[in-house]
Amino acid sequence: MSSPAATELESIVMDWLGNLLRLPKSFLFSGNGGGVIHGSTCEAIVCTMAASRDQMLSRIGGDNIGKLVVYGSDQTHSALQKASQIVGINAKNFRAIEATRSTTFALSPESLKLAISSDIEAGLVPLFLCATVGTTATTAVDPLGPLCDVAKHHGMWVHVDAAYAGSACICPEFRHFIDGIEGVDSFSFNAHKWFFTGLDCCCLWVKNPGSLTSSLSANPEFLRNKPTDSKQVVDYKDWQIALSRRFRAMKLWLVLRSYGVVNLRNFLRSHVKMAKLFEGLVAMDQRFEIVVPRNFSMVCFRVSPWVATSKGAPTSNSFHQNGIDINVEKCTNEVNCKLLEAINASGRVFMTHAMVGGMYVIRCAVGVTLTEEKHMAWKVVQEHADVILKNHGDDGDANLKLPLLDMIA
C-alpha cells in the first residue's frame, strides 16, 4: 500500500535474476513461485524453516515440535544452526553431518540417509535439510539431486544456500553446479558477495509463497487495506521477519542495468580464470598442496606436511624426534598459520583461513571488480614461505627448531 513501485521493481528483478540462473519457472512470479530480497542468509533460512515447521506441525500436531530435526553438513554455514535455535528446534535435534576429504567436503547422500534412519528409529521427525552450493570453508558443492531424493522420501523441506557461488551460475558453464534445483523448496544466494552489490542483498526464491505468508503474516486492523485483502498483490511484509523494509531492489536493479548480463558473466569468468592461474602456480611449487579441487574463484592450499615437518612424506600422524612426540598435523597447521600471518602482515595481499578435516587451510579468493592478474601475488607467498620454512628446519637440517617443538609437543 505504501510502496507499490518498490514492490513491483523487486518482483521484476527477482524474476530477471531467476531467469539468468535458469531457475525452474516454479520459482518465479511468472510461474507459481516468487522471490524476495532479505538482509542475510540467516533471515532467509529462518523464514523458510518457520514455514517448513508450521507445515509439518499441521500434520503431526503442534505438541511434537520437540521431535523435529534439522540437517546439514559440518561445512554448512552457522546460519543454519542459528536459524534452528530461533525457530524453536531442540538443540539436540540439530545434525551437522561430517563431510570428509574423500567427498571433497560435500555432504554425502549416504551419510544423510543413515542420520535420518537413526532419527526415525528414535521416534524423531526429519524436517529440514540445508544443502550448500559453495561452502564457506572450501566452496564445496553438495549433490542436490541425490540429496533431494533422500529428503523428499521423508517429506522434508530442502533449502539450498548458494550465498557465494550462486552468482557464478548465471554463466552457462557453471550452471551445472545447481543441477537438481527443481527438486528443492527454496533457494538463496547473496548478491552482496560475488555479484557486485552492496550489503545487504540476499535473494530468496520459494516454490510456494503461500507457505511463507501463512507462517509470517500478521494482519492487525491498522495494516488492513483493499489491495492486500484482494490477494492479487505481493505484500512483502508477509515474506520476511520485520514489518518495514528497505528498497533493496534498487541497488540490484542498478547492478543489472549498469553492467548488463555479458559484463557480469565476463567479470565472473575473469575471476575464475585468475584463481585458476593462482592454482597452477601453487601446483608448480612442490612444497605446497591444493587441499581440495577448485570449483570457483577460491583456491585452498597449504604447505605440505612433509615440508612442514622436514621428515619426508609422513607415513603416520606422528613421529618421535629429539625425545619429543611430534604430531604431524599440528606441526603442519602451525607452519601454515604462521605463513598466513606473515602474508597478511606484508600489506601486499590479504588471504583468509579455514579449518577442515583438522587441517589449517589458507584461502586465496578472487571476487572484486578491480582485481587483475598482477594482483595474484604468489611471489609474496613464496617469499614468506622461504623465511618461515628456513626458520623451522627447511634449510636441510632434519631437526625442527626447538621453539616450534615446544609449542606443538
From TrEMBL:
Keyword Lyase: yes
Any one Gene Ontology BP term: carboxylic acid metabolic process
Essential cofactor(s): pyridoxal 5'-phosphate
Source organism: Prunus armeniaca
Record family assignment: Belongs to the group II decarboxylase family.
Coiled-coil region(s): none
Entry GO terms, CC: cytoplasm
InterPro entries (UniProt xref): Aromatic_deC (IPR010977), PyrdxlP-dep_de-COase (IPR002129), PyrdxlP-dep_Trfase (IPR015424), PyrdxlP-dep_Trfase_major (IPR015421), PyrdxlP-dep_Trfase_small (IPR015422), Pyridoxal-P_BS (IPR021115)
Source superkingdom: Eukaryota
Protein name: Tyrosine decarboxylase
Residues modified to N6-(pyridoxal phosphate)lysine: K193
Keyword Lyase among UniProt keywords: yes
Pfam families xref list: Pyridoxal_deC
